[in-house]
Amino acid sequence: MSASPGDMIPPVLLVGCGRMGGAMLAGWRERGLSASVAVDPAPTAATLAGPDVRVIPGPAAIPADFAPAAIVLAVKPQNAAETLPAYARFAGSAVFLSIMAGRTIAGIGNLLGPQAAIVRAMPNTPAAVRQGITVACPSAGVGERQRGLCDTLLQAIGIVAWVEDEALLDPVTAVSGSGPAYVFLLAELMEQAAIEQGIPPDLARILARQTVSGSGALLAASTESSAELRRAVTSPGGTTERALGVLMASEAWPEAVSRAIAAATARSRELAG
Length: 273
Prior knowledge:
The protein is of the alpha/beta class. It folds into 2 domains: 5-166, Rossmann fold (3-Layer(aba) Sandwich), CATH 3.40.50.720; 179-270, Orthogonal Bundle (ProC C-terminal domain-like fold). Helices cover 44% and strands 14% of the residues. It has 10 helices and 8 strands. Strands 3-2-1-4-5-6-7-8 form an 8-stranded mixed sheet, with helices on both faces. Helix 6 (179-196) packs across helix 7 (201-221). The relative contact order is 0.10.
């Protein structure tokens, strides 16, 4: 069933059609998207065009009569300084929703002007299957309706949580923004270890991937804590207990994960420039 005009997402200007920008666009379309514009010079971006979205190579090609309700900044943070000023003319009429890692509200505001209403957000790649988690923080100039619109845009790709302390977005980036890579690494290492133990590669891949994805689904469905679920599968004197004795040694996972999150948090702060 298609959305009624009153329920449709209002016009959006999407700046950047990479993996995350494309995932967000797909989620909006599923909910019903008013005629919108996407900006990306990559030839592959043209494949995203449709009756509801016009894809253009740069801001100079934005139709003069196009009035977006939101501008979603999905470009690489390293490109912000050269990209964002071209959209400053929309400050005061549209809300800017940034998913650029590390780029602060103040830094974005310096590029867009003092009238810009900005929401800084950090989604993650499970957005591609509408299972993402996004944490968002509004600037002082964001109105209730603008915040509601950003919430709608982000709910199209998963769960949304809001914080008022922008400093929390750096560790959020380290935990959930970068987190899928940690999970994929776990699956990769489990697959390699299975092969080392003599399991055929095809079976090793299935075992690792399904164990990780199935465990994630169980975690999502359960009311128990992750620690309780871990203990439930750890029989005294069994194989799991022996394996966890290696992984939970102080110099193993506990220290490595803590150091990894701290390193990613520090890098997020560095990206603020």
